[in-house]
């Protein structure tokens, strides 16, 4: 098997490259490339490991037909076009915890720095000025911190701030009252937070909802003398408004680690009194960089080598322990999805995936993804578990997942049903010895067959001599039959024949089969 090939395109702890190699991947570390240079080289890679410098745009993705996974050694993934990656079937992963303590500490450090104007005092002292009378700071003790975003980083900042004897007021629409009590913070709406806070720190992702969350109007609503720290993302604060309100003295100080446009080599805020900044250093500690580099390499290699999925933003997680158990189910699920889409006709508006027996105990999301991948293959060659749910949604296909806990005839069963204009159509399969995928039912008719390679599916009237006629037809056309399976609704009723053959079935054989006595439907199937 050829080794998966990974490109590390941003500066990353060297442990990442080591892990990729140890886990069986080939790895190139090529940093600092322009988008054009990256576009020219990305086509050969299965994995792309990045921090924040590489921007993964639709153009880069279009030049990456082999790409299977993008790993962000960090938290924010606003430098990756996730919808475009998903549409192309590329998994996007991040490392949601590896740098949170470090980033929270940077926010606290900037809060102190802005409270005591440390950078300016340092610069002027080293300049030989000894400007002791020019600096008068404020204490943090007893002050109110307004926290915008109370997730991982926000809650660490809150705990550190409480340790500094600050009061913490938090605004986060997803913060439950119970969690607020557990964190020791007061849950508030944004308006209340702005009225109360002496310091504000931001800890939300940059989304359509959070963009400009501290707009000029909201900055004006802040308590006079507020100090603001942003270690999350540029774009959360109106930078022009911030400059004007710092100049007017309404805002007493601001510290930014992040800017709307990075790298920020020139900026109207530079040189503003009581404004300090760092060049997106929130995650830059030895500890955090080792954490995120190791984690991203482990996660990406696990996906590329074993199919394990951790911390993906566009796909359900699948642990390394679950992956081997789920793999045969996913193969069965994909085949059932493919079978039902090859057999069902008309306007397919709904697909339902039932798991019963042992299958009901498993993580249903990957199985659902595999059914959809099999089902959507009829519409796209490049479909996989990642993009299948998106393609299904795009086509207006409703997806239902159902699990039955009780024991049935089979100790494990997957059933896939599609709603068609002629009513529901379902196929079902099981696993033999926990491994081998077997079809056990087509459209209510019991049958037992492998779903492999090229197959002929015939619906006919159950009558003597039919098997011989099908066998002779195949022989006359030089087609070797591998396996032959039969099923019927009742004696003399509707019956099916499923046979596997060694090569694709030519169109003239299908036409000839349709003319056989008693035949209602003939289809060539491919798996
Ligand atoms: N400066 C740096 O180097 C770093 C910056 N970051 C940034 O910090 C952000 C936060 O990271 P985590 O705390 O780990 O993320 P998280 O996902 O744990 O927390 C984000 C919180 O924001 C809240 N939120 C979402 N929309 C909101 C809204 N409209 N108003 C208020 N709250 C809202 C969410 O409910 C969630 O609790 C990341 O998205 C990333 O952009 C992260 C690491 C390093
Ligand atoms: O990789 C970095 O230095 C930036 C980290 C960051 O912004 C993040 O993890 O969201």
Automatic annotation (TrEMBL):
GO terms for biological process: L-serine biosynthetic process. It is an enzyme of class 1 (oxidoreductase). InterPro entries: ACT-like_dom_sf, ACT_dom, ASB_dom_sf, D-isomer_2_OHA_DH_cat_dom, D-isomer_DH_CS, D-isomer_DH_NAD-bd, NAD(P)-bd_dom_sf, PGDH. Its EC number is 1.1.1.95. The keyword NAD applies. One of its GO terms (molecular function) is NAD binding. Keywords: Amino-acid biosynthesis, NAD, Oxidoreductase, Serine biosynthesis. Residues 455-527 form the ACT domain. Pathway: Amino-acid biosynthesis; L-serine biosynthesis; L-serine from 3-phospho-D-glycerate: step 1/3. It catalyses: (R)-2-hydroxyglutarate + NAD(+) = 2-oxoglutarate + NADH + H(+); (2R)-3-phosphoglycerate + NAD(+) = 3-phosphooxypyruvate + NADH + H(+). Pfam families: 2-Hacid_dh (PF00389), 2-Hacid_dh_C (PF02826), ACT (PF01842), PGDH_inter (PF19304). Belongs to the D-isomer specific 2-hydroxyacid dehydrogenase family. Catalyzes the reversible oxidation of 3-phospho-D-glycerate to 3-phosphonooxypyruvate, the first step of the phosphorylated L-serine biosynthesis pathway. Also catalyzes the reversible oxidation of 2-hydroxyglutarate to 2-oxoglutarate. PANTHER family: FORMATE DEHYDROGENASE 1, HYDROXYPYRUVATE REDUCTASE. NCBIfam families: PGDH. This is D-3-phosphoglycerate dehydrogenase.
């Amino acid at each position: 098997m050829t080794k998966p090939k990974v490109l590390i395109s941003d500066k990353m702890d060297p442990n990442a490259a080591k892990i990729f190699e140890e886990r069986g991947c080939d790895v190139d570390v090529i940093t600092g490339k322009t988008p054009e240079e990256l576009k020219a080289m990305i086509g050969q890679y299965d994995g792309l490991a990045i921090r924040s410098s590489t921007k993964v745009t639709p153009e880069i993705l279009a030049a990456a037909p082999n790409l299977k996974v993008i790993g962000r050694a960090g938290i924010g993934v606003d430098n990756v076009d996730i919808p475009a990656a998903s549409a192309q079937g590329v998994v996007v992963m991040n490392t949601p915890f590896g740098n949170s303590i470090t980033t929270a500490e940077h926010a606290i450090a900037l809060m102190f720095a802005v409270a005591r104007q440390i950078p300016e005092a340092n610069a002027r002292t080293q300049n030989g000025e000894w400007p002791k009378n020019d600096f008068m700071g404020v204490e943090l003790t007893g002050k109110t911190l307004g926290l915008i975003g109370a997730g991982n980083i926000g809650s660490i900042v809150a705990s550190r701030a409480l340790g500094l004897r600050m009061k913490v007021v938090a605004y986060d629409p997803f913060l439950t009252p119970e969690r607020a009590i557990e964190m020791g913070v007061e849950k508030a709406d944004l308006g209340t937070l702005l009225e109360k806070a002496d310091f504000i720190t931001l800890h939300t992702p940059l989304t359509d909802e959070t963009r400009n969350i501290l707009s000029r109007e909201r900055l004006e609503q802040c308590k006079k003398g507020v100090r603001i720290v942003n270690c999350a993302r540029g774009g959360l604060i109106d930078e022009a408004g911030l400059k004007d309100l710092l100049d007017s003295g309404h805002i007493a100080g601001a510290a930014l680690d992040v800017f709307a446009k990075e790298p920020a080599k020139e900026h109207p805020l530079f040189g503003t009194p009581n404004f300090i900044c760092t060049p997106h250093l929130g995650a830059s500690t030895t500890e955090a960089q080792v954490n995120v580099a190791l984690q991203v390499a482990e996660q990406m290699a696990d996906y590329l080598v074993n199919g394990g999925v951790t911390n993906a933003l566009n796909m359900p997680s699948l642990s390394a322990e679950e992956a081997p158990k789920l793999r045969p189910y996913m193969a069965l699920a994909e085949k059932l999805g493919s079978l039902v889409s090859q057999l069902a006709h008309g306007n397919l508006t709904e697909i339902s995936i039932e798991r019963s027996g042992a299958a009901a105990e498993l993580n249903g999301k990957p199985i659902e993804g595999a059914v959809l991948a099999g089902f959507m293959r009829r519409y796209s060659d490049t479909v996989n578990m990642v993009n299948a749910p998106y393609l299904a949604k795009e086509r207006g296909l409703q997806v239902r997942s159902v699990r039955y806990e009780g024991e049935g005839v089979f100790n494990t069963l997957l059933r896939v049903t599609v709603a068609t204009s002629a009513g529901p159509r379902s196929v079902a399969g099981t696993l033999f010895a926990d491994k081998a995928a077997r079809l056990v039912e087509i459209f209510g008719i019991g049958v037992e067959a492998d779903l492999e390679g090229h197959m002929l599916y015939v619906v006919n009237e159950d009558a003597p001599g039919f098997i011989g006629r099908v066998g002779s037809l195949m022989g006359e056309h030089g087609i070797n039959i591998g396996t032959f399976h039969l099923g019927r609704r009742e004696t003399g009723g509707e019956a099916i024949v499923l046979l596997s053959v060694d090569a694709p079935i030519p169109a003239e054989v299908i036409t000839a089969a349709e003319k056989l006595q008693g035949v209602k439907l003939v289809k060539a199937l491919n798996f």
